[in-house]
Amino acid sequence: MSDIEIGELSTRLGEVTILDVRSPAEYSGLAGADCDPRQGHIPGARNVDVYRLMKMTPDEIRAELALEEGAELVTYCHSGSRSQFAAQVLSGLGYDARNYPGSWHEWSRTDLPSER
To answer: Nearest Cα to 107, choosing from 49, 44, 65?
Structure first.
């Protein structure tokens, strides 16, 4: 399992499944860290809260994602910690999961697109 950097991720929007593993409030932009200039999520990202993910069985995770084994996934959160854990779990389930360690903390500081 390897990390993905902002440059590669920004050019692959729409090509990879992006999982935002923050809370639904963070994902929607209703909550977030004061240190981030913008709130919201990376365009096209799906939200699966890491704390909910931790309570799910492997079969429930597979059903939630509805992706084939080996599918390429990128996880992110606010600073890369929760998403690193999620990437490890998903890799263990057979997905090609990579963590974006810069996460929303980095993305929110750029002029790259975001959604709310």
So the answer is: 44
